[in-house]
Write a structure and sequence with these properties.
271 residues; alpha+beta; four-stranded antiparallel β-sheet
């Protein structure tokens, strides 16, 4: 939970000095007063705690985006008192046939989910296309393409159903494609095979494997879904003892899970 001095109060109209100092420590030291005002408004409107990392503002190319996890969207919808649950996720391929489970070896072309507004028997549907949201270079998108695309569809549906509460806020999954960076392949003459430290010895990985491991480390730091972290633990067991910058992947995942458990309230979602 946040320190008492950092808690947003109903009668506030801007961040306090102590809150500004805390936001600077969270990476917003360069944000303009206007950007901070928008972030304040969205934090107060959604009721999500920026100091518990339930909602945060990220700079990309000199512009700021306000983000939360899909759990944050669910919390806001449930707190509104008008959340009536959601449909099961569905996926389709190029044939346009919707399925309630994705078993293909290739990623789905699109995903869709419907959200119910309390008292209505008609769901508000939204669909997310792979080409619009996927980050193919991301380890988590490679491993769980159907789950990640379904989260984007759910976020779109929740925003459509609750525009007064969620407009202007995006989920991490929706913004993953913005994090994709095109890199020119290194010429063979300059290519190197870095060594990563694994307790208790040094193991040499291929260049491609080393890049993958570093991508996993970077992604774990930004993931806001405990299930995704558990999936990485299960799928990448052979890398759990890899040590980068003084911490193993095992400890990094464990610490991230502990952080999320400490700040994320339990939310019941009906499917």
């Amino acid at each position: 939970m946040s320190d008492h001095g950092l808690v947003l109060k109903a009668d506030q109209d801007f961040w306090s000095d102590s809150q500004i100092a805390a936001l600077s420590q969270l990476g917003l030291s360069r944000a303009s007063k206007g950007d901070l005002q928008v972030f304040f408004h969205q934090s107060q409107r959604t009721g999500l705690d920026p100091f518990a990392r339930q909602i945060y503002m990220i700079e990309r190319g000199g512009r700021y985006t306000i983000q939360t996890s899909i759990d944050g969207f669910r919390i806001v919808a449930q707190r509104s008192g008008n959340y009536g649950g959601q449909t099961m996720a569905e996926w389709c391929g190029t044939d346009g046939v919707w399925k309630d489970i994705w078993l293909e070896s290739t990623p789905p072309v699109a995903a869709r989910i419907g959200v119910y507004y309390k008292g209505s028997d008609k769901a508000t549907y939204a669909s997310a296309k792979w080409d619009s949201y996927a980050n193919p270079s991301s380890p988590i998108w490679k491993k769980m393409p159907d789950l990640m695309l379904a989260k984007c569809a759910e976020a779109l549906a929740l925003r459509k159903a609750f525009p007064n509460d969620l407009s202007g806020v995006y989920t991490t999954e929706e913004m993953n494609q913005a994090d994709a960076v095109e890199k020119k392949p290194e010429s063979p003459s300059k290519a190197k095979t870095p060594a990563l430290h694994i307790e208790p010895a040094v193991v040499i990985f291929t260049e491609e494997e080393t890049k993958y491991i570093k991508d996993v480390f970077n992604e774990v730091k930004t993931i806001t879904d405990i299930d995704q972290l558990r999936e990485i633990w299960s799928e990448d067991k052979k890398y759990l003892d890899v040590n980068i910058d003084g911490i193993t992947l095992k400890d990094l995942i464990s610490n991230r899970v502990a952080e999320l458990k400490a700040v994320t309230p339990a939310v019941e979602v009906t499917e």
